[in-house]
Design goal:
Layout: E1 2-10, E2 15-22, H1 25-34, E3 37-46, E4 51-52, H2 53-59, H3 67-82, H4 87-97, H5 101-115, H6 120-125, H7 133-145, H8 148-197
Antiparallel strand pairs: 1-2, 1-3, 3-4
Helix pairs in contact: 3-4, 3-8, 4-5, 7-8
C-alpha cells in the first residue's frame, strides 16, 4: 500500500484535501469518487520524508518553470481563448499535459483559485515565482478590457523575443570565455618551464 495526498471537490463545490492509502493512484481516485468527492489532484507521498516527490523537488529548486515554459504556456492560452474554450477546461487540459512539474502544480493551484471565485490575474499573482509582475499586469488589463486573447498573444511574442535575446547574449559571451580560459591554461602550462629555466644546473 502507498500513501497519497489529494485535493478533491465535494458535490457542493467545496475543495477538500487529505491523505489516504491505496495500492495505486487509480485505486486512490476510485476510492475518492466512491466517497462522493471528485479528485482534482493526487500525489504519491515519499514515505522517507513525508512529502510528495514534486514538493521535494520544488523545495530543492528543481523543476522550476523556465522562460521557454512561459512562452509555450502563453501561446497555448492564446489558442484556448481564441478558440472560445472555457477557461477552466482549457487550463485543466494544459495542467494535465505540461511536462514541467512546478508549472503543473502551479496551474492546478490556479485552477483551484479560479474555482474559488478569483479572477485569472489574481490567481496567477499568487505565484510570483512563476509569473512575473509584468505578466500579471498584462493579463489583468486583458480581463478588464475583454482583450485576453490579445494579451496572451503579446505575452507570447514578448517572452519569445526576450528568450531569443538571452540566447544571443549567452552565445556571444561563450566564445570570449573560451578564449580567456584557453589563454589562462596556456600561461599556466608555460609557468613551470620558465621557472625551471631560471635556475642554473
Amino acid at each position: 500500500m502507498a500513501s497519497f495526498r489529494y485535493k478533491a471537490r465535494a458535490n457542493n463545490g467545496t475543495l477538500v484535501a487529505g491523505k489516504l492509502t491505496a495500492d495505486s493512484l487509480d485505486q486512490a481516485a476510485q476510492r475518492l469518487i466512491a466517497s462522493g468527492v471528485w479528485p482534482v489532484n493526487i500525489d504519491a507521498v515519499d514515505e522517507s520524508g513525508g512529502l510528495s516527490v514534486r514538493h521535494a523537488l520544488r523545495r530543492l529548486g528543481m523543476g522550476k518553470a523556465q522562460l521557454t515554459d512561459l512562452v509555450l504556456f502563453s501561446r497555448q492560452m492564446y489558442t484556448v481563448v481564441k478558440a472560445g474554450i472555457p477557461l477552466l477546461r482549457g487550463l485543466r487540459g494544459l495542467a494535465s499535459s505540461t511536462q514541467n512539474l512546478m508549472l503543473r502544480e502551479t496551474l492546478e493551484e490556479v485552477l483551484a483559485s479560479l474555482e474559488g471565485g478569483r479572477d485569472l490575474a489574481s490567481s496567477l499573482a499568487r505565484h510570483p515565482e512563476v509569473f512575473p509582475t509584468l505578466y500579471i499586469s498584462v493579463v489583468r488589463v486583458g480581463e478588464a478590457t475583454g482583450t485576453l486573447e490579445q494579451s496572451f498573444l503579446r505575452l507570447g511574442q514578448h517572452l519569445a523575443q526576450e528568450k531569443d535575446f538571452r540566447d544571443r547574449v549567452t552565445g556571444a559571451m561563450r566564445y570570449p570565455a573560451i578564449v580567456v580560459i584557453t589563454i589562462l591554461l596556456a600561461a599556466r602550462s608555460r609557468c613551470p618551464r620558465a621557472s625551471s629555466s631560471a635556475h642554473p644546473r
